[in-house]
UniProtKB/TrEMBL annotation:
Keywords carried by this UniProt record: Oxidoreductase
Name by which UniProt lists this protein: MSMEG_0569 family flavin-dependent oxidoreductase
Keyword Ligase belongs to the record: no
An example Gene Ontology molecular-function term: flavin adenine dinucleotide binding
Any Pfam family hit: Pyr_redox_3
Record-linked PANTHER family: FLAVIN-BINDING MONOOXYGENASE-LIKE PROTEIN (AFU_ORTHOLOGUE AFUA_4G09220), FLAVIN-CONTAINING MONOOXYGENASE
Keyword Oxidoreductase: yes
Length: 425
């Protein structure tokens, strides 16, 4: 039953409520402030808390600094083609807040969101009730770290932590470390441990990889110039399934480079197939290491092909490069490993996060609990999502283009409020 929120005189009122004080929520705030629309941003921690607390010490961007282009705050530092370190990213973000002074309420958690019979929204928060005409859910998708139940089968003397809690190799106990998951975080953490001279094991899943520089230029330059990054997911060859894909792995470390797990294997990193479980002192892996490495290389080569096609179509004179030749192949598929004999004393679970929308009492989710939206607009008038992966394009949810998605939602917000709307972007 919808609450009669008009009979809640103790609640404060606002035109638009934004839940989440990260890059998405504050991009939305910037546009609303420019439009003169009253709003408030709720952040249960400190703004940009994920950047501050959930990144390891050597973390840096995997995309060039010039792609940091929050609305009204493009990167203006001395190294547009570099890759900012964690502390530099936080400085860039803090400068954004200082630049436009958003109506931000830090340390205020939204514990329930409902829609009243009159169509407005009631937000129960740790600092009292609020009523909003419209609401933007911008609290992100990296909310609940995933650690499998199989972790309970490991002995207590093995340190276990999620990738969001990993800081550096020195914080791990002496011995070998196993990283489970080969997405961006897993590969970079495994490299971090390996480059520190420690024995690193990595469970390789189906994450794709990307070239860094190809035919004389950064691949991000080629993909930007060709318009690939502007392709809406509806027009993408993989359609909506692209939203389910893991990010390609590469790194901004050492000035930016590729991550080739085959090369790391030659250097002594131990690669295994997908993690399958724990039993009787043994770690169990699927016999899919060769398949997963081949699939990652296929993605790598597909990106090269996209660049080749663009160069040919545009008539660009660019140097040729030889085809990629795998420097290492697994000679056998090891499906079990005695973790004590292997000297494994720590495990980093880098298998992602699940969203947490348990506080949202609105019919805006599918049977899997995922948002149902088109470019952030839901079937509930006045309720929006922002900052989702591939909400519209590759740059959605990223520092690159989350501002474009916020600008698009501004049009709907203005329309519902009966305000003039500029031409659609």
């Amino acid at each position: 039953m919808n609450p009669q929120i008009s009979n809640a005189p103790e609640a404060r009122r606002v035109a638009v409520a934004i839940v989440g004080g990260g890059q998405a929520g504050l991009s939305m705030s910037w546009h609303l402030k420019q439009a003169g629309i009253e709003h408030v941003v709720f952040e249960r921690d400190r703004c940009f808390s994920e950047w501050r607390k959930a990144r390891w010490d050597s973390f840096c961007l995997v995309t060039p600094n010039w792609q940091c282009r929050l609305p009204g705050h493009p990167y203006a530092g001395p190294d547009p083609r570099g890759f900012m370190l964690r502390e530099e990213i936080v400085e860039y973000l803090d400068a954004y807040v200082a630049r436009f002074n958003p109506p931000l309420l830090e340390g205020v958690e939204v514990t329930q969101l409902q829609r009243g019979a009159d169509g407005r929204f009631l937000l129960s928060t740790s600092a009292g009730a609020w009523i909003a005409d419209q609401v933007v859910l911008a609290n992100g998708v990296y909310q609940k770290p995933v650690i499998p139940r199989e972790a309970e089968r490991l002995p207590p003397d093995i340190l276990q932590l999620h990738s969001s809690s990993y800081r550096n190799p020195q914080s791990l106990p002496p011995g070998a470390a196993l990283v489970v998951g080969s997405g961006q975080s897993g590969c970079q953490i495994a490299e971090d441990i390996h480059l520190a001279g420690r024995q690193a094991h990595l469970c390789v899943g189906r994450a794709p990889r990307s070239p860094r520089v190809y035919r004389g230029r950064e691949v991000t330059d080629w993909l930007t110039e060709s318009g690939y990054y502007d392709i809406p997911y509806e027009n993408h060859p993989q359609k909506a399934t692209v939203r389910e894909k893991t990010n390609h792995y590469l790194t901004g470390r050492d000035g930016g480079r590729e991550i080739d797990l085959r090369q790391r294997a030659l250097e002594g990193m131990r690669l295994h197939g997908s993690f399958r479980g724990v039993a009787a002192g043994q770690l169990h892996f699927a016999p899919d290491l060769r398949q997963n490495l081949d699939e990652a290389d296929r993605s790598y080569n597909n990106i090269r092909t996209l660049v080749d096609q663009y160069i040919a179509q545009a008539g660009i004179d660019a140097p040729q490069e030889p085809a990629y030749q795998p420097p290492w192949e697994p000679t056998e598929e090891i499906t079990t490993l005695d973790y004590a004999a292997a000297g494994i004393t720590s495990i980093v679970w880098a298998i992602g996060f699940t969203p947490d929308y348990g506080w949202v009492d609105l019919p805006v989710f599918n049977g899997r609990g995922h948002p149902v939206q088109r470019r952030g607009i839901t079937q509930v008038p006045g309720a929006y999502f922002l900052g989702l992966s591939w909400q519209n394009t590759w740059g959605s949810g990223r520092l690159a283009d989350v501002g474009k998605d916020a600008e698009y939602l501004l049009g709907s917000i203005r329309r519902l409020a009966g305000m003039p709307v500029a031409a659609a972007a």
